[in-house]
């Protein structure tokens, strides 16, 4: 029987041939001896050709007369140019002529769609079993490429999948009335696809699963049509039978009965086919190891349940979707959710989903927090559909878990959550009576909904995120959020009888939400952090934006003055209200004849300035004046006059108060100081956005600052605001000069004022008050950066007299400030925490402030305002303060390397030398090399080594200079033990060995020769433990066959570089030149600099093999000499393991720009030499230490090392002449 053919056995073989035997009569017509269900199917297959001579006329499945120019089915579908209907009709026609040949075509079509180059021949089709054919095809599969048609990229294959699926769908649809019931075609296809879907070859499995699932979907459509026809036939039969006997047509009853019977048989047949596919393919492949295959299965079962819910929408099938929601791949989880959305969307199906919902609801709710944002979005949308179907399913806890997602930084998630929130809280509106006048203001239906929004915002306790809440609700609730008339009424009008008035906290929240809705409507883009880049607005969106701005201006131009008057004493409310005018269309003040409201607004702003001293309020007033003072509009003169009058009063008052304050001196009381401070705050806030050059503020502020220095008792807030105000004076003068229209006298004046102010700030760096010092430091860094050599770029050469370079004393003070105020423990920063040590928010704010200070100084290094060598004191903190400042220090190293690779390398080695000296002063010369301090310096050196990347050619000069400085430092000071002992800094070679892997092979030889100039013959023979750093360093420089594997101290890090170094072979002339220079040239700094033009080692002071160098003998090295005279900033010994808990071994975290990036002078290629993948060469410290602890002193034979080095040098010399 047909059903027996479809038993999905995975191990037994099923023949491709039908159970029906075909033989040809003399007319060529096929006669059938049917098996199973009588002759019914044979009757439907009349006209089909049996296995005859035409099969021999086919070559590899090509039709000879199919009208497709002998093209295979695969080629036709691949091209996708022909209408699929005609392709299928041609195949059906060929099937009627010769069904074996046509089926062979179809079999080869599926094989070729899998990417297999093999072809099933007619002989294989007749004689071989299913499993044998698949095994043969597997052997002929191209294993060189992992691609196959469903995965190949490119335009040619882009539409292949859709064409492939369409072909299967059309094939079943065209065959649904006869061929699929002939017990032959479907037997063959389902048997083939079931076998292929069980293959170990991914291409076979993927393609056949897709084909089987699409075949199943097509059969579901057929079954659905059959079901509809059966219902119609049954109704006709019932109607005919219910007629009276006289009118009843018995022959019609028999026909309808026979038709119903045939339809039932066909439906049974289709159900058998679907069962075979489901049990033979789906049940095994929905948990396939390949996510794409699992996704196909889940996607299609969702289609089946939606199309034919009577048959498939039950727990037997739903359970597969429920189970798969726990899939580890996001794309599969996504298919589960989209499949369920199609079911929950139809409310008629809700009753059948009750058990599933109760069982898997918690999982769906948890998926709203899925790590894949697409999955989270669809999970929220699914819950919204569940919410629409019934309110009882989701508990308040379930809803709350979705509510908070309106504050998500990912906009699609937030918008989906906003729709959920809107449906839950705002779907119940008060019905409006028909014919009744529309209610406005606080009587409108939106009034309660706006209150609900306020209540929700306050309950969420995320008050600073109103903009995110508004953005989340904007797409679904814009009409509600744009009801500004109602919001204004809620704030200004008295409550209705029986209505509860808004509390002060609720009014504050409503004003903030109102401001955010105005901003969203006027700017038409999401808040910071949610934007996906600039989007081009459509014409409709632009029109809506203009209409909204007009509505905003018309409403708030009238309402803003009374709102300001009502809340004039509330700083928070006033600050938000004052930001509204920047979104106005100012032309409407004139066209709408609203000048009297403008006058009222200006009066209110002036009163607020006089009442408040809060910086945020004053800056909001300043921004409002700046928005209104637009020369393009006719209201400019009116606003400009009001602004000038206000500033005149403020400056006159400040001048008068300051004179009295300075004259009274120590006799001035707190009230006088408060008056001066409040007036100065107002002037400073306005000077930020307005040019106050017409008032001589520099003289009065400088006099105030000078008095503060001389007396030392000036209140800190007065000093801070005076510094800021003077800073603005200088910046506004520079802005005017940059336009090129000023006189030479102005240039001279600005030069004098700027330099005098810089000296004043330098003096304030030593102030006792931390806040004053931080303000002075920040302003100094800004001024030094602005007035650096870069200010003349871009055609501003006339500003060259203003260029200012800091003196050494100022550089030293800036560095001292950083070391004393940034690189400190969190618990030590008591000045800025006001006793709230346990408050995490305060600690984070203090850390943020310190990061800004460090970034300001690092920008000075990056833009060459201060000497690069000052960065050594910063770089040496990299490990200890990695969690707090690691990204800033790493970016600084990257930038300095781009500016000057050699100078950067010298700075890095200097930082290690400073740490080494600090360790010696703390532990003494007899320290243990296994101590945490020494291991910390070695680990820092390893980190520095990784930042050089893998391109040894780029960093060749820098690495060579680094080794030169390191060697000289190691042998600089004599042994404290006297003649014959190791030099004081010899252990530094152990640290230097971390950089050996970055040397090219020929440079290793050169460095080794340079090292030997500092060694005596006795040194090379020493075997004591104290000489181990020298021996191991020499060993790391041995350039043998596998040179880097001999670096015993660098572990695997050096090996990672050796592979690269072997591929890079510069001309041997460089290596010969290095050898010759070190052998013949005398010791001079000039020769060193010349030799560095070709990356070679500098000849050091010539040493013999029998005498130690005089430790007091000077070397011509200005860089090191300068540093020996520079005062070092010693701190307590660093415990590098203390802060290392969060330090990842791979030094490849993304560089966070934070406050580091300047708006001017950006350098390209930020990641050069920094962002290399170091995972293969970055060995965990524990493993390094383990390997190093296993080294025994006996491993080193100094004599043999010396012999090998001599032999290798001889071999190298010989090779250079070849």
UniProtKB/TrEMBL annotation:
GO terms for cellular component: chromatin; chromosome, centromeric region; cohesin complex; nucleus. Residues 1085-1094 have a biased composition (Polar residues). Residues 1109-1120 have a biased composition (Basic and acidic residues). GO terms for biological process: cell division; chromosome segregation; sister chromatid cohesion. GO terms for molecular function: chromatin binding. Residues 282-367 form the SCD domain. InterPro entries: ARM-type_fold, Cohesin_Scc3/SA, HEAT_SCC3-SA, SCD, STAG. Keywords: Cell cycle, Cell division, Chromosome, Chromosome partition, Coiled coil, Nucleus. The keyword Coiled coil applies. SUPFAM superfamilies: ARM repeat. Residues 223-276 form a coiled coil. Residues 26-62, 1085-1134, 1172-1199 are annotated as: Disordered. Pfam families: HEAT_SCC3-SA (PF24571), SCD (PF21581), STAG (PF08514). It is found in: Nucleus; Chromosome; Chromosome, Centromere. Residues 1122-1133 have a biased composition (Low complexity). It comes from the Eukaryota. Its main location: nucleus. Component of cohesin complex, a complex required for the cohesion of sister chromatids after DNA replication. The cohesin complex apparently forms a large proteinaceous ring within which sister chromatids can be trapped. At anaphase, the complex is cleaved and dissociates from chromatin, allowing sister chromatids to segregate. Belongs to the SCC3 family. Part of the cohesin complex which is composed of a heterodimer between a SMC1 protein (SMC1A or SMC1B) and SMC3, which are attached via their hinge domain, and RAD21 which link them at their heads, and one STAG protein. This is Cohesin subunit SA. It comes from Oryzias sinensis (Chinese medaka).
């Amino acid at each position: 029987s047909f059903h027996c053919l479809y038993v999905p056995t995975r191990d037994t073989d099923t023949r491709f041939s039908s159970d029906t035997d075909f033989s040809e009569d003399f007319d060529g017509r096929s006669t059938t001896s049917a098996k199973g269900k009588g002759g019914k199917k044979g009757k439907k297959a009349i006209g089909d050709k049996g296995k005859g001579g035409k099969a021999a006329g086919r070559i590899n499945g090509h039709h000879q007369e199919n009208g497709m120019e002998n093209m295979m089915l695969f080629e036709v579908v691949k091209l996708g140019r022909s209408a699929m209907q005609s392709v299928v009709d041609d195949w059906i026609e060929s099937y009627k002529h010769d069904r074996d040949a046509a089926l062979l075509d179809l079999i080869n079509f599926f094989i070729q769609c899998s990417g297999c180059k093999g072809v099933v021949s007619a002989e294989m089709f007749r004689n071989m079993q299913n499993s044998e054919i698949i095994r043969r095809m597997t052997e002929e599969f191209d294993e060189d490429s992992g691609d196959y048609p469903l995965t190949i990229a490119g335009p040619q294959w882009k539409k292949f999948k859709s064409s492939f699926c369409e072909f299967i769908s059309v094939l079943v649809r065209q065959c649904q009335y006869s061929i699929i019931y002939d017990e032959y075609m479907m037997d063959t296809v389902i048997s083939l696809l079931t076998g292929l879907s069980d293959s170990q070859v991914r291409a076979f499995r993927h393609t056949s699963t897709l084909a089987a699932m699409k075949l199943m979907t097509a059969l579901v459509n057929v079954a659905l049509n059959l079901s509809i026809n059966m219902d119609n036939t049954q109704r006709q039969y019932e109607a005919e039978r219910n007629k009276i006997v006289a009118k009843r047509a018995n022959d019609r009853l028999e026909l309808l009965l026979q038709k119903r019977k045939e339809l039932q048989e066909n439906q049974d047949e289709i159900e058998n086919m679907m069962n075979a596919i489901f049990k033979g393919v789906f049940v095994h492949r929905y948990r396939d190891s390949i996510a794409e295959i699992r996704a196909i299965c889940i996607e299609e079962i969702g289609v089946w349940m939606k199309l034919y819910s009577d048959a498939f929408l039950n727990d037997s099938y739903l359970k597969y979707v429920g189970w798969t929601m726990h899939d580890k791949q996001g794309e599969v989880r996504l298919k589960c959710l989209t499949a369920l959305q199609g079911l929950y969307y139809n409310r008629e199906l809700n009753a059948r989903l009750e058990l599933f919902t109760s069982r898997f609801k918690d999982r769906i709710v948890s998926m709203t927090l899925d790590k894949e944002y697409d999955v989270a979005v669809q999970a929220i949308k699914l819950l919204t559909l569940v919410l629409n179907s019934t309110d009882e399913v989701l508990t308040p806890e379930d809803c709350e878990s979705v509510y908070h997602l309106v504050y998500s930084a990912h906009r699609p998630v937030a918008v989906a959550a906003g729709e959920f929130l809107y449906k839950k809280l705002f779907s119940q509106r008060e019905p409006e009576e028909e014919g009744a006048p529309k209610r406005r203001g606080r009587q409108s239906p939106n009034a309660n909904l706006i209150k609900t929004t306020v209540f929700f915002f306050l309950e969420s306790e995320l008050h600073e995120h109103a903009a995110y809440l508004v953005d989340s609700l904007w797409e679904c609730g814009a009409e509600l959020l744009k009801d500004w008339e109602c919001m204004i009424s809620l704030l200004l009008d008295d409550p209705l009888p029986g209505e509860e008035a808004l509390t002060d906290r609720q009014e504050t929240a409503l004003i903030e939400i109102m401001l955010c809705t105005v901003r969203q409507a006027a700017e038409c883009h999401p808040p910071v952090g949610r934007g996906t880049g600039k989007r081009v607005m459509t014409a409709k969106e632009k029109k809506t934006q203009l209409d909204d701005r007009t509505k905003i201006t018309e409403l708030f131009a009238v309402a803003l003055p009374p709102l300001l008057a009502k809340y004039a004493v509330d700083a928070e409310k006033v600050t938000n209200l004052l930001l509204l005018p920047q979104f106005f269309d100012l032309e409407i003040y004139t066209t709408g004849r609203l000048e009297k409201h403008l006058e009222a607004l200006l009066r209110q702003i002036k009163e607020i300035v006089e009442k408040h001293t809060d910086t945020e309020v004053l800056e909001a007033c300043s921004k409002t004046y700046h928005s209104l003072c637009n020369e393009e509009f006719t209201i400019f003169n009116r606003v400009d006059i009001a602004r000038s009058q206000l500033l005149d009063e403020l400056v006159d008052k400040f001048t008068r108060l300051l004179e009295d304050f300075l004259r009274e001196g120590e006799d001035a009381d707190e009230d006088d100081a408060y008056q001066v401070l409040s007036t100065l705050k107002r002037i400073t806030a306005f000077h930020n956005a307005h040019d106050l050059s017409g008032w001589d503020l520099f003289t009065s502020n400088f006099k105030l600052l000078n008095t503060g220095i001389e007396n030392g008792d000036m209140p800190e807030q007065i000093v801070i605001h005076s510094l800021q105000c003077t800073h603005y004076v200088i910046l506004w003068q520079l802005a005017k000069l940059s336009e090129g229209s000023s006189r030479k006298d102005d240039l001279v004046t600005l030069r004098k004022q700027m330099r005098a102010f810089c000296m004043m700030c330098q003096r304030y760096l030593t102030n006792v008050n931390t806040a004053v010092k931080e303000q002075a430091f920040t302003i100094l860094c800004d001024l030094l950066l602005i007035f650096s050599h870069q200010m003349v770029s871009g055609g501003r050469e006339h500003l060259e007299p203003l260029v200012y370079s800091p003196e050494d004393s100022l550089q030293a003070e800036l560095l001292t400030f950083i070391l004393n105020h940034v690189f400190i423990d969190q618990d030590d920063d008591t000045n800025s925490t006001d006793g709230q040590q346990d408050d995490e928010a305060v600690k984070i704010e203090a850390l943020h402030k310190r990061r800004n200070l460090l970034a300001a100084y690092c920008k000075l290094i990056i833009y060459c305002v201060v000497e690069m060598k000052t960065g050594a004191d910063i770089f040496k903190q990299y490990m200890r303060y990695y969690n707090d400042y690691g990204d800033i220090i790493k970016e600084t190293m990257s930038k300095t390397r781009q500016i000057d690779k050699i100078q950067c390398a010298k700075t890095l080695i200097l930082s290690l030398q400073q740490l080494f000296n600090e360790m010696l002063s703390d532990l003494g010369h007899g320290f243990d090399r296994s101590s945490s301090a020494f291991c910390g310096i070695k680990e820092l050196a390893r980190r520095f080594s990784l930042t050089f990347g893998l391109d040894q050619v780029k960093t060749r000069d820098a690495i060579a200079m680094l080794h030169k400085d390191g060697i000289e430092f190691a042998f600089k000071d004599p042994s404290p033990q006297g003649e014959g002992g190791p030099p004081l800094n010899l252990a530094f070679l152990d640290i230097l060995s971390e950089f050996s892997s970055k040397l090219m092979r020929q440079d290793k030889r050169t460095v080794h020769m340079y090292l030997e100039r500092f060694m005596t013959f006795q040194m090379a023979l020493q075997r004591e433990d104290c000489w181990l750093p020298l021996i191991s360093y020499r060993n790391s420089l041995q350039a043998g066959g596998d040179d880097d594997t001999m670096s015993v101290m660098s572990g695997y890090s050096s090996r990672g570089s050796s592979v690269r170094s072997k591929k890079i072979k510069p001309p041997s002339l460089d290596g010969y030149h290095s050898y010759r220079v070190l052998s013949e040239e005398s010791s001079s700094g000039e020769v060193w600099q010349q030799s560095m033009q070709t990356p070679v080692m500098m000849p050091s002071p010539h040493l013999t093999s029998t005498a130690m160098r005089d430790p007091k003998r000077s070397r011509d090295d200005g860089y090191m000499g300068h540093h020996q005279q520079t005062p070092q900033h010693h701190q307590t010994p660093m415990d590098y393991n203390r802060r290392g808990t969060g330090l990842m071994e791979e030094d490849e975290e993304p560089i966070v720009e934070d406050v580091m990036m300047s708006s001017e002078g950006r350098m390209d290629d930020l990641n050069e030499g920094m962002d290399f993948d170091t995972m293969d060469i970055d060995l965990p410290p524990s493993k390094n230490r383990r390997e190093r602890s296993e080294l025994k002193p006996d491993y080193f034979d100094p004599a043999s090392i010396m012999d090998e080095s001599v032999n290798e040098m001889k071999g190298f010399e010989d090779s250079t002449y070849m």
